[in-house]
Write a structure and sequence with these properties.
By secondary structure, the protein is an alpha/beta fold. The protein contains 14 helices and eight strands.
């Protein structure tokens, strides 16, 4: 299903007070702490290191490419400050950087058409401190498609901090980009009986995930609203849910879940370890993304310019239909699962050597299973463009004419 963008005209209202934004952040953090106090659950792991994510994250790359026209439009429409101060692009959730090259090149190209070649542009890549920054720096220095290769006035930076914290000082970012990263929750709120994916949970567990996701989304928006300059733009791309609530990855998740059960039976994984294996990924419906903006279509001075859902065909399946190579299909799907999801599952295992052996065996078993049951994983992409409104200017009161 392909959705046309929801276009909501910006409204002229006073900018939300800084104290209100801080209150949103504080309340969300307090609720998260209360939810996590009942049990210790591993937080999600970063993407698999050693460049694995760069090699195997083709699905997130494809989703980000679908959103490039929205990023380019945002770069053309944001308010450019006069003067010579650097323009700042924030790449929230950069991982190992390969999937950021095309979006950053597109954004820089559009900004250059507006400000010329001399003005400095800072590109700041943000991810958790445990991210594979060595691979990111290697991409920034050596990749043939790096955005700075022919532009001496573009300056890359990196910050090792969660985007569920303050990342920049107030009003420093002109253009924000966040692709396939905000799907990850700040904390995992509950164990999931019989499964590891939030899309499979029900009842009280589903309610806990729903609440965590709502708090985290509002926290993310509040923090970004503080960091964006007035007139700035933020483009957020998610793996989406269809109107029926499907992700497209259900067959993949269910196959992996069956294998985890087998690994417990084979005593490769302990039963307690298996129970603690939970993904912090939470795909949201369009209504959940729009909920904070309410009837006034505004939240913490952010307004929605576009909100659209698109199909993302499975490129590996397209290749399989052409060449019939089921081994290649199974390898690509299993490597994708390993690079993105297995680090989170493996975080339930305390021994580093066992974590590596677990990842290897799970990938092998999953590849075999997927080759036996070849199927496409056509998924969905949700794209939002948010604009930060300039504060309303109140004209000075007119003095009464003297008599």
């Amino acid at each position: 299903m392909s959705g046309e963008p929801i276009r909501i005209d910006p409204i002229s209202q006073p900018q939300a007070e800084a104290e209100n934004a801080a209150l949103e952040v504080t309340e969300a953090q307090q609720r998260q702490g209360e939810q996590m106090s009942a049990a210790t659950i591993p937080t999600h792991g970063v993407m698999e290191g050693g460049g694995s994510y760069n090699l195997h994250a083709r699905i997130p790359a494809g989703g980000g490419n679908l959103a490039l026209p929205y990023l380019e439009d945002a770069a053309r429409s944001l308010a450019v400050r006069p003067g010579t101060d650097p323009l700042v692009i924030a790449d929230y959730g950069s991982s190992q950087g390969k999937n950021s090259m095309a979006p950053m090149r597109a954004a820089i190209r559009c900004l250059r058409s507006r400000v010329g070649n001399e003005r400095a542009i800072m590109v700041v890549h943000v991810d958790q401190h445990a991210n594979d920054f060595n691979t990111l720096f290697d991409v920034l220095h050596n990749d043939a498609e790096r955005y700075s290769v022919d532009d001496p006035n573009v300056f890359p930076f990196a910050i090792g901090r969660s985007f569920y914290e303050n990342v920049f000082p107030r009003e420093q970012v002109d253009l924000g980009w966040c692709s396939y990263a905000a799907v990850w929750l700040r904390h995992i709120p509950a164990l999931i009986p019989g499964h590891f994916a939030s899309v499979a949970c029900t009842g009280e567990v589903r309610a806990a995930f729903d609440l965590q996701a709502a708090d985290d989304w509002r926290l993310f928006l509040s923090l970004r609203a503080r960091e964006l300059r007035a007139g700035g733009r933020l483009v957020v791309v998610f793996p989406g849910l269809s109107d029926e609530g499907a992700t497209g990855f259900e067959p993949l998740f269910n196959s992996a879940n069956e294998i985890l059960g087998e690994m417990v039976d084979e005593r490769v994984v302990g039963a307690d370890e298996r129970k603690r294996m939970v993904l912090g990924a939470y795909p949201r419906r369009r209504a959940q993304l729009l909920e904070p903006f309410g009837r006034e279509d505004q939240f913490q001075s952010l307004s929605v310019e576009h909100c659209a859902l698109f199909d993302l065909p499975d490129a590996a399946w397209t290749d399989y239909q052409l060449d019939g190579n089921v081994e290649s299909l199974g390898s690509r799907h299993a490597a994708f699962f390993r690079a993105i999801f297995v680090p989170s599952l493996a975080s339930a295992i305390s021994d580093a050597g066992r974590r590596l052996a677990f990842a290897d065996l799970l990938e092998q078993k999953l590849k075999r299973r997927l080759c036996e049951r070849p199927a496409p994983f056509h998924s969905f992409v949700q794209t939002m463009v948010l604009a930060k409104q300039a504060p309303a200017v109140t004209p000075p009161a007119r003095s009464s004419p003297s008599k």
